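Handout, page 2. Input:
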Amino acid sequence: MKKVIAILAALALLAGCVALADAAQVGPASDVNMETYGTEDCTVHVAIDASAIEADGDELTYLVYGMDTYTAEAIRGLQAGDGLYINGEQMTVETVEESENGFDVNGGFIGEETEGEGATLVYVEGSTEVLCSTLYDGMLAYTLQGEVTYPFADEVTVTTYKWEEDGDFAGNYDVQTLPAAEVKAYLGTTGVSYDYSNTTLTLKDGKVTEIKVEWAPNV
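Output:
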C-alpha cells in the first residue's frame, strides 16, 4: 500500500512539473531596435545624468529606453498559471479580461500602492494589435536598451518645464535653441529631472537635434 501511495505521489509531482513546464511565458518586445538606432531619424525616451555632464564638448552620452510592447494575440492567449513579465517583474496570470481599449490581467493595475497585483495593457495609439503596459498616473512601462553617445547638431532645441516658486509645475515650458557648444552647460542649470519617463531625444542625420522634457507628477 505504501508503495502505491509513493508511486501516486511521484506521478502527481511529475504532473505538476509538466504543467509548470507547459505554462506560457510572455514578455515584452521593445519599440526601439538598438541594432539600427542612429541610422534613421527618430525620437526615443532617454535618461540623462545632468550631474555627470561636463560643461564643454560637442557630444552627449545618454541611456536609451524602449517602450514595452505586447501583441493582442499573445495576451488574449494567456491562461491561468501562465507567466507575464510586466515592468521587469513576472506576474502569474489568474484572469484576463478584454475590453475595446485593451486587456486587464488579474483585475488590472489599480494604483501605485497595488503595483504588481494586476496589469492593464492598452492599445498603442493607432493600432489594434500592439499593446503597451500602463502604470500609475498614466505612465507607461519602459526597459533600458543601452547607453550611447552622439554628437550635437549645430543647433539644438531644448524644451523643459517651468517651476513655480513653491515647487509646483508652472503650467508652461521654456524653449531654448542653443548652439552645440552651449547645450551641456544649459542642461545642468534647468533644475529638471531628465528621467526616461518624461524625456525624449530626437536624432536627425545621426546628430542630436532636440531634447524635450515633459512635466510628470512622479518624476
